[in-house]
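Problem 12. The chain below contains 122 residues. Write out its predicted structure in token notation.
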Amino acid sequence: MDAASRILLVEDDPILRLGAAAVLADAGYEVLEAANADEAIAVLERETGIRLMISDIQMPGSLDGLKLAHAVRRRWPPVAVLLTSGRRTPEPEELPERVHYLPKPFAAPELLAEVGQLAAAR
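Solution.
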């Protein structure tokens, strides 16, 4: 499996995380999971070759998904980011470069289309 197929999925709701991970794995991606931003940063620090992070915006912990996206842009510039939320729609100027937004709820084809678009833009 090549590096472009490694995705970090950050979602605090275990049911949503399991569902999204299954969709991505079924599409051939290697999925690494984290329940919050602190876990996500730990994964990024120890794993190589992650090229896409998908993160919920509303999460408990030291950082929400939007702050996590900014941190990833600074520390891991090659990693593209897809933010999701069912509660908050970020303004375009809040999003760092190469960060896309997908509102919840989304269907599997919508998720895979966004992932494919971000992977193609690398």
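Discussion. The longest strand covers residues 80-85. Students who got a different answer should revisit the alignment rule from Section 12.3.
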